[in-house]
UniProtKB/TrEMBL annotation:
Localisation per UniProt entry: Cytoplasm
Main localization category: cytoplasm
Quaternary structure note: Acetyl-CoA carboxylase is a heterohexamer composed of biotin carboxyl carrier protein (AccB), biotin carboxylase (AccC) and two subunits each of ACCase subunit alpha (AccA) and ACCase subunit beta (AccD).
GO cellular component: acetyl-CoA carboxylase complex
Name of the featured protein: Acetyl-coenzyme A carboxylase carboxyl transferase subunit alpha
Lineage: Bacteria, Pseudomonadati, Deferribacterota, Deferribacteres, Deferribacterales
Length: 320
């Protein structure tokens, strides 16, 4: 799939187009243009680095939502071995918006749960744009309980605008399904690592995200509401979304300062959508580091570690 340019990437795409044109000319003629191409490639890398190191919160929202970003099944392909997908919530149906399964990580068995968006219109309709119904969260809960029974570490990948808000989802108990997941995750005694890979939207994200360690890709976002939704409520106008994105403190850098997350995973220059393999390597390294630390803890310690992590989020000040 061709990479779609974002509004602030005009200069990047112009340079890439020039490089591609020079390469074609070089191939079709005896004229060597290697020096010119090399010079432009160096300039391109510098431009990408300059643009991406100074993104605004609203621009990070655009990057986090880029349709070419890697999704759960991409990370499964590059990071894990022997993946077997598990389907259904044993109550109503399967939900393709959440992928669950068992696999091996560095030869050791693990459990995987993650949101899954589509790579084209047909897939997005099938995956409901990564917005899960109640049965998606109940499927995740079933797999969490399976991991607890067989003492398997849990790795979750979060990338959703939020839980599906349709009438049928509410009729089948969307809020209850999310609340039950939060309660059950709080009591898990196996290691759990969560990675925010794109957009982490509200309770739909949190319903699979109560890890002992919560990590975020460099240009991902995590918030209680979308900037557009926030702007519609506060200013009655979604066009104020850039102002809302700034106020929400939804970037990985903001959330690390606030101690909501534990680590930022570096993305390739120009964003994860430009290099899935390099992104996956960085994610794998982070998982390995934290998993080794968590695997050394006892069940009681893992429970206490998760409990204290969420108790310590936020600062309370008594009124004078």
């Amino acid at each position: 799939m061709a990479i779609q340019p974002l509004p602030f990437e005009t200069q990047i795409f112009e340079l890439e187009k020039k490089i591609e044109e020079l390469k074609k000319v070089s191939e079709l003629s005896d004229q060597s243009l290697s020096k010119e191409i090399e010079s432009l490639e160096k300039k391109l890398e510098q431009v990408k680095a300059n643009i991406y190191k100074s993104l605004t919160p609203q621009q990070k929202v655009m990057v986090a939502r880029h349709p070419n970003r890697p999704y759960t099944l991409d990370f499964v392909k590059y990071i894990f071995e022997d993946f077997v997908e598990l389907h259904g919530d044993r109550l109503f149906r399967d939900d393709p918006a959440i992928v669950c399964g068992i696999a091996k990580f560095d030869g050791e068995p693990v459990t995987i749960v993650g949101h899954q968006k589509g790579k084209n219109t047909k897939e997005n309709i099938y995956r409901n744009f990564g917005m899960a119904h109640p049965e998606g969260y109940r499927k995740a809960l079933r797999v969490f309980q399976l991991a607890e029974k067989f003492r398997r570490p849990i790795i979750t990948f979060v990338d959703t605008p939020g839980a599906f808000p349709g009438i049928e989802a509410e009729e089948r108990g969307q809020a209850e399904a999310i609340a039950r997941n939060l309660r059950e995750m709080a009591g898990l005694t196996v290691p759990m690592i969560t990675i925010i890979t794109g957009e982490g939207g509200s309770g739909g994200a949190l319903a699979i995200a109560m890890g002992n360690r919560v990590l975020m890709l460099e240009h991902s976002i995590y918030a209680v509401i979308s900037p557009e939704g926030c702007a519609s409520i506060l200013w009655k106008d979604a066009s104020y979304s850039d102002k809302a994105a700034e106020a929400l403190k939804l970037t990985a850098q903001d959330l690390l300062k606030l101690k909501v997350i534990d680590e930022i995973i570096k993305e390739p220059v120009g964003g994860a959508h430009r290099d899935h393999l390099e992104t996956a390597k960085n994610v794998k390294y982070a998982i390995r580091k934290h998993l080794n630390e968590l695997m050394a803890m006892s069940s009681d310690k893992l429970f206490e570690d998760r409990y204290m992590k969420y108790r310590n989020i936020g600062v309370f000040a008594e009124a004078k």
